[in-house]
Specification:
A: mainly alpha, two-stranded antiparallel sheet, 2 strands, B: Four Helix Bundle (Hemerythrin (Met), subunit A), 5 helices, 0% strand
Chain lengths: 606, 194
C-alpha cells in the first residue's frame, strides 16, 4: 500500500518536475521535452515524492513541521513500508538484493545464450550491450550493498550488543533509496538501454542514447545509499558497543563491516562525481570530457577508478569478516591471528585508495604513473595474504563441521586464491598490456567477486538464516546448491582465463569462429551454474514458509547474536549484555564466556 | 568497567543520554562533511586536470573578493549565534542567525550576478571548471540557508537554549563553516592562480 502511494507520488513528482522545466523551456522558445534534461530534473522530484509516499513523511518529516510521527505497525506489513528497526531493514535489503541478484543472473544466462555460437542469435548488438550493462551494474549493486545492507544491518547491532543502529531514520532512508535505483535501471532498458557497461566511460557515455542518463541518475542515488550506510555503520560501531565490548573483542565480521564502511563513505564520491560530470556534459554543455574543447576522457577514468577499485574492497572486506566468522565457529577454534587480521583489514583500507590506475595501463595516461601503481597494487597482496593465513590457521587441525555455510566459506578460500593469483598478471604492466580488455579480466574479476564475495554471501546467508527468519533451512538442498554452484562456477570461469589469454575481447556481442568451442563449453557450464540457484531459491522460499523452527543457537556459537532468540526480540536484548572476553575462545582453558546477559536491573550499574 | 566504552542503552540519566546522542550526531555530521569534502576535492582536482592553472581574464576580481569577504564574515556571525544560544541568549542568537542568512543570500546573489555577466562559456574548459565548482558550492550554500532558516523559524521559545538542546544550531553552524572552508579553497583555485 505504502509502495503504491510512493509510486503514485513519484509519478506526480516526475510530471510536476518535468512540467515546470517544460514551461521554462517553452517560454525560452525551446521544445517542451528534452529527454536528457527532463529526466535529470524530473527524477529528483520523483524521488522526493517516492520517499514521502513510502512513509518518510508519516514516520519522520512530519515532525519538522510540528506534527507527530506515526507508530509503525507490527507483523508482515512493516516490511513493505518505511521502518526504522535494523532487523526489518536488514531483511528488506536482503530480499531486495537477492531478487536483483537473480534478475541480473538471468541476464547473464541470456548473454551466455547469445555467446554460444559465433554470429548473432538472440539479440541485436545494441540489445546485447544493454543486457551486458544491466548484468554489470545490477551485480555490482548487489555485491556492494548486500553484505552490509542485509547482514551488516541485521547482525552488527546484535553482535556489538546495541538496540539499533546509530541513525535508524537515515538507515530507513538509505534502504528506500534502493527501489528507485532498480526501477530506473529497468526503465532505462525499456527506453532503449545503454551501451557503456557499468563503467560508463566517456566519450561514448556522453554521446550515446538517453538510457545513459537514467543509468547515471540511478547510480548516483545508489552512491548515496552506500555513503549513508557507511556513515551509519561507522557511528554505530564507534558509539553503540555494549559495556566491555572493547575494540580487541569485536567479532571479526564487525571489523569487516567497519573497514568496508570506511571505504564506502569516503570513496563513493568518486563514482558520483564522474557520473555527475557526464550529466553536466550532456545536459548543461560543459566540456569535462570533450577532447576538442580541451577536456579529457582520461579524467573520467581517474575519477571513476578512484572509487571503483576501492569498491571491490567494500564488497570483499565484510565478506572476509563473514567467512572468518563462519570458519572460526565451525572449526571450534579461536580465530587465528585476530589482531593481524584487524591490522590487515585496516591496511587494505589504507592502500585501496592508491591503486586505482592499474585499471588504466592502456588508457594513455602518463608513463611515469605505471611503475608506482604496479608496486602499490602488488603491496595490497600483503594484507590480503595475512587474511588468508588467518583463515588457514583457523581451520588447521580444527574439527570442521561440514554444514552448508562451512562449505561456502571453504570454497571462498579456494576461489579467492585463484582470483588473487591471476590478479598479479593484471597488476603487472607487461602482462596487462596483453590481457587488458580480454576475457582473462572477466574471469579474474568473477573469481574475486563471485567466487569470493558471492560465495561468502551464501556462507553468511546460510549461517544467519536461522537467526534472521527463525526457521532452519533444508541442509540437503543447501548442499546440492553448493556443489552445483561450486562445480559450475569452476567450469565457467577457468576456460575464460584461457580464451582471454588467446585474445578474445570482452564486451563484444560476436566473436571469430575460432573461439566457438570454448564459448559453447562456457555457456553450457553457465547454465549449470544457473540451475544451482533454482535449488537456492526453492530452499529459501520453502524453508522460510515451512521450515522447522530454529533454536536460538543452532551452531553453538559464542557471539552475542546467538545468545538471543531466533528471531531476536523487538529491542534485541531484554537486559544489558556485558562483554567479558574474546569472541572466539573455543577450547581455551579458563577463558571467560564472551558475553553475560545482564538483567534489566543490572543496567543501572554499568 | 564501561569507562572506556560508550554504550547505547538508555542511560538512567536523560541528560547523559542526550549528550550521548549529541556525540553520535556530531560524529555522523563530520563523517558526512568528510565525504562531501571528497566530492569538492575531486572537482577541484579536475579543474587542474582539464584547465591547468589558467584563469579567464574577464573574471570580475572585485566581485569575487567582495563575496568571499561576505562569506567569511557570515561564518563569524554564525559562530556568534551558536555561542549566544549556548549561553541561553536566544534573542542575540536569532539576530546573528538573521545576519548570517542575509550575508549568505548576498553571496548567492553575487554568484548569480557573476554567472550572468560571465564572458566565458560553460563549454570552454575554464568555464566548465568555473560553473561546475561555483554551481556546486552555491547549491551547498542554498541548502545551508534552508537549514539556517528552519533553525531560525523554530528558535523562538527557547527551544535551543543551553546544553544538548543547542545541538541543532551547532550542527547547522558546523555545516555553514564547512561550506565556508570549501570556498576558502575554491576562491584561490578559481580566481587567484597565475
Amino acid at each position: 500500500m505504502a509502495i503504491l502511494v510512493g509510486l503514485v507520488l513519484a509519478v506526480v513528482g516526475f510530471v510536476a518536475g518535468t512540467g515546470i522545466l517544460g514551461g521554462i523551456r517553452t517560454s525560452m522558445g525551446l521544445e517542451y521535452w528534452s529527454t536528457d534534461m527532463s529526466w535529470s530534473v524530473g527524477y529528483p522530484v520523483a524521488l522526493i515524492g517516492w520517499l514521502i509516499g513510502v512513509g518518510g513523511w508519516k514516520y519522520w518529516a512530519v515532525e519538522w513541521f510540528g506534527g507527530k510521527a506515526a507508530t509503525p505497525p507490527k507483523g508482515v506489513k512493516r516490511y513493505f513500508e518505511w521502518n526504522m528497526d535494523h532487523k526489518v531493514i536488514g531483511i528488506q535489503y536482503g530480499v531486495t538484493f537477492v531478487v536483483l541478484f537473480l534478475l541480473s543472473g538471468l541476464t547473464a544466462m541470456l548473454i551466455r545464450f547469445e555467446l554460444m555460437n559465433s554470429g548473432m542469435q538472440l539479440f541485436t548488438e545494441d540489445q546485447y550491450n544493454s543486457a551486458m550493462s544491466f548484468h554489470g551494474i545490477g551485480m555490482v549493486a548487489v555485491a556492494v550493498a548486500i553484505m552490509l545492507g542485509a547482514f551488516g544491518n541485521y547482525i552488527v547491532p546484535l553482535q556489538i550488543g546495541a538496540r539499533d543502529m546509530a541513525f535508524p531514520r537515515v538507515n530507513a532512508l538509505s534502504y528506500w533509496l534502493v527501489p528507485p535505483v532498480a526501477i530506473m535501471l529497468i526503465i532505462a532498458l525499456l527506453i532503449g538501454g545503454w551501451d557503456t557497461g557499468w563503467t560508463a566511460y566517456p566519450p561514448l557515455s556522453v554521446l550515446t542514447k538517453s538510457g545513459q542518463v537514467l543509468f547515471n541518475l540511478a547510480v548516483i542515488t545508489f552512491g548515496l545509499v552506500s555513503i549513508l550506510g557507511g556513515i551509519n555503520f561507522i557511528a554505530t560501531i564507534i558509539y553503540e558497543r555494549a559495556p566491555g565490548m572493547t575494540w580487541g573483542r569485536l567479532p571479526i565480521f564487525v571489523w569487516g563491516a567497519f573497514a568496508g564502511s570506511l571505504i564506502a563513505f569516503f570513496f563513493t564520491q568518486g563514482f558520483a562525481a564522474g557520473l555527475l560530470m557526464i550529466l553536466l556534459d550532456r545536459v548543461v554543455g560543459t566540456s569535462f570530457f570533450h577532447a576538442a574543447e580541451g577536456g579529457s576522457p582520461i579524467l573520467y577514468e581517474h575519477v571513476f577508478w578512484f572509487y571503483s577499485h576501492p569498491a571491490v574492497y567494500v564488497m570483499v572486506l565484510p565478506a572476509f569478516g563473514a567467512v572468518l566468522e563462519v570458519l572460526a565457529h565451525m572449526s571450534r577454534k579461536p580465530l587465528y591471528a585476530y589482531r593481524w587480521v584487524v591490522g590487515a583489514l585496516l591496511g587494505i583500507v589504507a592502500i585501496s585508495g592508491v591503486v586505482w590506475a592499474h585499471h588504466m595501463f592502456t588508457s594513455g595516461m602518463e608513463d611515469y604513473l605505471h611503475a608506482p601503481f604496479l608496486v602499490l597494487t602488488e603491496m595490497i597482496s600483503i594484507p590480503t595474504g595475512i587474511i588468508f593465513l588467518s583463515a588457514i590457521g583457523t581451520i588447521w587441525a580444527g574439527r570442521l563441521w561440514m554444514r552448508t555455510p562451512m562449505l561456502f566459506a571453504l570454497a571462498f578460500i579456494f576461489n579467492f586464491t585463484v582470483g588473487g593469483l591471476t590478479g598479479i598478471y593484471l597488476a603487472d604492466v607487461p602482462t596487462d598490456i596483453h590481457l587488458h580488455d580480454t576475457y582473462f579480466v572477466v574471469a579474474h574479476f568473477h573469481y574475486t567477486i563471485m567466487g569470493g564475495e558471492i560465495f561468502a554471501l551464501f556462507a553468511a546467508l546460510y549461517y544467519w538464516f536461522p537467526k534472521m527468519t527463525g526457521r532452519q533451512f533444508n541442509e540437503t538442498l543447501g548442499k546440492i546448491h553448493f556443489w552445483i554452484m561450486f562445480i559450475g562456477f569452476q567450469l565457467v570461469f577457468i576456460p575464460m582465463f584461457q580464451v582471454g589469454v588467446k585474445g578474445m575481447n570482452r564486451r563484444v556481442a560476436d566473436y571469430p569462429e575460432a573461439y566457438e568451442d570454448f564459448n559453447r563449453f562456457i555457456s553450457w557450464s553457465g547454465f549449470l551454474l544457473g540451475i544451482s540457484f533454482i535449488f537456492f531459491a526453492a530452499n529459501m522460499v520453502l524453508s522460510w514458509v515451512r521450515g522447522e523452527r530454529a533454536v536460538a543457537n543452532p551452531w553453538g556459537a559464542s557471539t552475542l547474536e546467538w545468545q538471543v532468540s531466533s528471531p531476536p526480540p523487538e529491542h534485541n536484548f531484554e537486559g544489558q549484555p556485558v562483554i567479558q572476553g574474546g569472541a572466539y575462545e573455543y577450547g581455551v582453558p579458563n577463558a571467560p564466556a564472551h558475553a553475560r546477559m545482564g538483567t534489566a536491573a543490572a543496567t543501572e550499574n554499568v | 568497567m564501561a569507562a572506556a566504552v560508550s554504550h547505547s542503552h538508555e542511560h538512567a540519566d536523560p541528560v547523559a543520554h542526550a549528550w550521548h546522542r549529541v556525540r553520535i550526531n556530531r560524529l555522523g555530521l563530520w563523517l558526512f562533511l568528510i565525504s562531501d569534502g571528497a566530492l569538492f576535492a575531486i572537482f577541484a582536482a579536475s579543474r587542474f586536470y582539464i584547465a591547468g592553472t589558467a584563469i579567464d581574464p574577464h573574471l570580475n576580481q572585485l566581485l569575487g573578493l567582495a563575496i568571499t569577504s561576505l562569506l567569511l564574515l557570515s561564518s563569524f556571525s554564525a559562530y556568534r549565534a551558536e555561542t549566544a544560544f549556548a549561553h541561553g541568549n536566544t534573542a542575540h542568537g536569532r539576530t546573528m542567525l538573521l545576519a548570517t542568512i542575509l550575508m549568505g543570500l548576498l553571496f548567492v546573489g553575487g554568484v548569480a550576478y557573476e554567472w550572468s555577466i560571465a564572458e566565458f562559456a560553460a563549454s570552454e574548459v575554464y568555464g566548465t571548471a568555473f560553473f561546475s565548482m561555483t554551481g556546486m558550492h552555491a547549491f551547498h550554500v542554498v541548502t545551508g540557508l534552508l537549514f539556517l532558516a528552519v533553525i531560525w523559524a523554530r528558535s523562538g521559545g527557547g527551544r535551543y537554549s543551553q546544553g544538548p538542546a543547542v545541538w541543532p544550531v551547532t550542527a547547522v553552524v558546523i555545516y555553514w563553516h564547512f561550506v565556508d572552508v570549501v570556498w576558502v579553497f575554491f576562491y584561490p583555485t578559481l580566481y587567484l592562480l597565475k
